Amino acid sequence: MQFIEDVQLDHLIGMEVGTATILRELARGGSAAVFIAFQRTLKRQIAIKILPKSLLTPETAERFQIEAESAAILSHPNIIPIYEVGETGDFLFIAMQLIQGQSLSHHIRAAKKNVLPSRRYIPVETTVTIMEQVLDGLDYAHHRDIIHRDIKPGNILMESPSKRPIILDFGIAKVSQGLEHESSVIQGTPMYMPPEQIRNETADRRTDVYAGGMMLFEMLVSDLPLPRVDPLELLRLKLERKDRLFKTKPSEINPRVYPDMDRIVFKAISFDPADRFASCSEFRQDLLDYQKRHLGKI
Q1: Residue 150 annotated as catalytic
Q2: What are the pLDDT digits (tens) for 195-254?
Q3: How many CA atoms lie less than 13 Å away from 63 in the CB half-sphere?
Q4: Exactly one of 10, 90, 136, 150 is catalytic; which is it?
Q5: How far apart are CA 49 and CA 11, in angstroms?
Q6: What is the pLDDT of residue 127?
Q7: Nearest residue to 138 via CA among 182, 85, 192, 61
Q8: Residues 227-233: contacts with CB under 8 Å, at least 24 apart
Q9: What is the 3 state secondary structure string of the chain?
Q10: Residue 195: cis peptide before it, omega within 30 degrees of 0
Q11: Cross-sheet strand order for the sheet of 91-97
Q12: What is the pLDDT of residue 202?
């Protein structure tokens, strides 16, 4: 089986793709590579995500197409703007805005390495602000029948220098009105995946609520208090332990977290979707209330 890391793509440098010329490779991940390109028509640098056809299966081709169609109709300050979608004889591509910055996962890792124990977490004020914006973007997408289904720190890009979080990669998003059946393949990232997604049941907005809750927990504590097991074992533990997956609360790890944040986090990551926040808007409102009570902001 071939992976994106094994594919030779140097020959793409200088190639014209759509209205742009490819300049250099930026990153690889999943089944795709991202390049920086120069868009000749508007004289600006953009990012182009490329999926080589040599890696295509019916499932990956469909997911890539869904990403393009889903994200292209979204216009929100916390969602990556899409400029163009197309294909060549060798690959499919999506042209999008080039955002300067690092992923949220990078910032979590950087905080964890701080020499001062008290600074090994992203500040609570910053965490709440980031989550409020991400939840607002997700709520916007949900009102357009789009579920992301892979929310995680690696899919949140922190724009520099504005520190605005940008949601990336709707590659496994589900357009509720556009797909009549789910894939039989589990899609997502184990740590952030809710039980219904593990069981390959229908995903809805509460799927993103769960992943957002896990991301909030991680930002508050830097290192989720989970057993050190392989991804498949983690999925099994999630189904087996249900709401007993975590034995430690955020406020017990990070002294700057007030206990009422524990309720918010554990409501978001409840095993039963009916016990979670019904929407990202409701989730966001609880964080706004927490912010007003404890962080001196409205």
Answers
A1: yes
A2: 999 999 988 999 999 999 999 999 999 999 998 899 999 999 999 999 999 999 999 999
A3: 24
A4: 150
A5: 15
A6: 97
A7: 192
A8: 231/190, 232/190
A9: CCCHHHCCCHHHCCCEECCEEEEEEEEEECCEEEEEEEECCCCEEEEEEEEEHHHCCHHHHHHHHHHHHHHHCCCCCCECCEEEEEECCCEEEEEEECCCEEEHHHHHHHHHCCCCHHHCCCCHHHHHHHHHHHHHHHHHHHCCCEECCCCCHHHEEEECCCCCEEECCCCCCEECCCCCCCCCCCCCCHHHCCHHHHCCCCCCHHHHHHHHHHHHHHHHHCCCCCCCCCHHHHHHHHHHHHHHCCCCCHHHHCCCCCHHHHHHHHHHCCCCHHHCCCCHHHHHHHHHHHHHHHCCCC
A10: no
A11: 16-17, 20-29, 32-39, 44-52, 91-97, 82-87
A12: 87
Residues lower than pLDDT 70 in the chain: 1, 171-187, 297-298
Q: Report the amino acid identity of residue 4.
A: I
